[in-house]
Amino acid sequence: MMFDTLLIANRGEIACRIMRTARAMGIRTVAVYSDADRDALHVQLADTSVHIGGAAARDSYLRVDRIIAAAQTSSAQALHPGYGFLSERPDLAEACVQAGLIWVGPHPHAIRIMGAKIEAKAVALAAGVPCLPGYAGADQRDETLIAAAHDIGLPVMIKASAGGGGKGMRVVHDPGGLADAIKSARAESERAFGEGRLMIEKLVQNPRHIEVQLLGDKHGNLLHLHERDCSVQRNHQKLLEEAPAPNLSATTRDAMFDAALRLGREIGYDSAGTVEFVMEGETEAYHFLEMNTRLQVEHTVTEEVTGLDLVEQQLRVAAGQPLGLTQADIRCCGHAIEARLTAEDAALGFRPQTGEILHWAPDPGLRCDSGVQTGSVVASHYDSMIAKLIAHGPDRDSARKSLIRGLERTGVAGLGTNRLFLRDALARDAFAQGCATTGFIAAQWPDGWAAPAAQTTRLAALARHSAQPSGTSPWYGLGGMRLLDQAGQPACAQYLETDAPDAAVEIRGRQGQFEVTSREGTVSCLITRASATEMNVIENGFSSRYGVFDTGTEIWLWSPAFDTSHRLSLAGDLRLATRSTTDTAPDRIVAPIPGLVADLPVAVGKVVQKGETVVVLESMKLLMELKAMADGVVSAIACEPGATVDAGEILIRIDITKGA
């Protein structure tokens, strides 16, 4: 019998995704939320919501006791963990069982044994699943690990046994780097997962990341739902995923299905889960990587090609219902590709972005799984994903082109995103031909991705001059157009860029017909506004449409060619204002973004060298090492491990004269 109330022990996109299916099945939903998520979309969509603690995940979404208490006080009968947070923690599954709640996931033993890579590899070998040569022994002394690496043969991959997401992983090519790599991998693993066990494996050259979706029930039925390719990654974090995998032979595909099913049967797997493989791009030799005992972020592409709702299947299985499907019922129709849209500025090395989403308009032609809306706030406490955008088509190229068009038509203002980077990745020949490996991004942009060059100051000035902003601003009460119109002269106003006051833009005209003079010269244009956030500009007979959002102090512009923002002022106002700067000096370490101090490896009085890490900042699950910009001696420390800091906050001062 199906339960009627479901608590979702998660937040953001996946919480909203689960609620959508639960609502369609007539199941009431209970959301949990932290201090930072009081106004989050998943809280608004739920039938009931329960506050569970502070903004930091360790004070809320990682608290088993508070989540179980929330389920009990809200009369929930079942609990879905989503992905991330506690989804692969057996203690939450066991606590559910002890509290009489239905756990929407596999049995705790499967979670426990697959959650540690060392034990998971042993199970895979026992099931006859190909594994990479490596060391996964109990002796974790540094000298033992170094000797094992030499026996395996460099290059090797050092991996944390616990957790995932690329944390605790180091690639080592040079024997001299083994000791430091082991030390840093262990420290990162202990910090992220609470344990420092490591394993070492032979590094695969030109690897592809292929995974097989499994679905089992409590009655011994286990099926595969075909495969996905998740090779396009940055720092082991997936960015583009697709189903089915391109350029994969039928022989290898069937062998991987068989291997995944053997592993699933070895542990009696009874829910949705994924077996991941690393495969050599040229030879198609594949090896077991890990098993994720939960719903994957990229489950959407499997849903698109199979027509199945994986969350619905999870809920039915958890309620004790048999699958009602056979392997012959599972078809793979067409092709689907997912892009993870994140609040990261790809042009600045994917620096995390925080702040309010002032405007959010995903292209309606794409499937959009998101946990945000206009007005949502992206904070530094959680990951940076804004949405998953998915295209499905009859073949791979049509899906790829649909996703490119959809990304170009998606509008987001208020913070930087990786939207155009994703578009460019999809358009690269290596991806278009289905030849991407996990080294795709480094190979395509060895010096980092650069945003397309665009002259947009004049467009921002036109946007402000031609219509009322979406926000409120005193500029429009004193607009140059209105004042000059009263004098019977052509409307004229001059705008200056706050950060570049020498770049003036002068606009003359009225009723949508303007003459614009800037450093690029003088052009005549015709402007129409389809809406408050859409501006159509005709120049020399060529028409272009731009997205625009004006807060009154900042203008956000987006198009297929750029994402940018401008701070414009009327010439007289800016010339009276005092210009500020956020430039840093070598004698201070300043937080570039809001975040949590994850590590502080220095103390007052310590001599540091240029390039030495002095603070490790964590923001949106990413670790950023802040390094000394000059030799010197630490003279003052204004932060401590575990503290939350704001962007621009001075963390450390260094006396560079003493180090000279």
TrEMBL record:
Q: Looking at the keywords, is Iron present?
A: no
Instruction: Name the InterPro entries for this protein.
Output: ATP-grasp, BC-like_N, Biotin_carboxylase_complex, Biotin_carboxylation_dom, Biotin_COase_C, Biotin_lipoyl, CPAse_ATP-bd, PreATP-grasp_dom_sf
Q: Where is the Lipoyl-binding domain?
A: 580-655
Signal peptide stretch: none
* Domain ATP-grasp residues, every copy: 121-319
Q: Which UniProt keywords apply?
A: ATP-binding, Biotin, Ligase, Nucleotide-binding
What cofactor does this chain's UniProt record say it requires? biotin
- Positions of the Biotin carboxylation domain: 2-446
Domain of life of the organism in this record? Answer: Bacteria
List, alphabetically, the Gene3D superfamilies matched. Answer: 2.40.50.100, ATP-grasp fold, B domain
Q: Which Pfam families match?
A: Biotin_carb_C, Biotin_carb_N, Biotin_lipoyl, CPSase_L_D2
Descriptive protein name:
Biotin carboxylase N-terminal domain-containing protein
Protein's organism? Aliisedimentitalea scapharcae
Q: What is the lineage of its organism?
A: Bacteria, Pseudomonadati, Pseudomonadota, Alphaproteobacteria, Rhodobacterales
